[in-house]
Design a protein that fits this description.
Layout lengths: L1 E3 L3 E2 L10 H14 L5 E6 L2 E6 L1 H9 L4 E7 L3 H11 L6 H13 L5 H8 L3 H13 L2 H8 L5 H14 L2
Parallel strand pairs: 2-4, 3-5
Antiparallel strand pairs: 1-5, 3-4
């Protein structure tokens, strides 16, 4: 299905880590071959909430494109977010995991056990991930989001430093 980009709600854009190099590569690919992989959306109150494909949408906007190819998922938002999490296995950062967990707990009212069950992880893993966003200062999280600090570096060095210097 084709959707006009202004019709998309980009509610989860801030829960993605950006990479300038990947963005430039994606822009070049879209320019040369067009959009090959559709984005994933769910319907919400007559609009489309983007679940997966934020980088593609940003690259299409940079190219002044108005239309995006999309697949509309026939599921609720929580299931769509969990599906995206599973699809991105190996390509997610620890902070992206933590932001999703925080969202599922605070916005959608799930418990630690429910989140663990949906993500096929232990309650302890969920708790450790959640500690990452709760301990890491917002400025450091912003640096990771913008691609200025590698996510693994933030987890390995900045979190212990933040814990030690609370």
């Amino acid at each position: 299905m084709q959707i006009e980009i202004p019709e998309l709600e980009l509610e989860y854009a801030e829960q993605r880590v950006r990479s300038r190099a990947r963005h430039r590569t994606l822009v070049g690919s879209l320019l040369g071959a067009g959009q090959q992989v559709p984005v994933l959306v769910v319907r919400r109150q007559g609009r489309y909430l983007l679940v997966d494909g934020y980088a593609r949408v940003a690259a299409l906007k940079e190219l002044a494109r108005d239309i995006v190819e999309a697949i509309v998922l026939d599921t609720d938002l929580v299931d769509a977010l969990v599906l995206r999490h599973r699809m991105k296995a190996g390509r997610r950062t620890p902070l992206e995991d933590a932001w999703l967990i925080e969202n599922l707990l605070e916005t959608h009212g799930l418990t630690l056990a429910e989140v663990g069950l949906r993500l096929q992880r232990s309650k302890g893993w969920v708790s450790r991930c959640l500690a990452l966003v709760r301990v890491l200062p917002k400025a450091a999280q912003e640096a990771v989001k913008r691609g200025l600090v590698p996510a693994q570096g933030a987890r390995k060095y900045l979190v212990p430093l933040a814990r030690a210097n609370a």
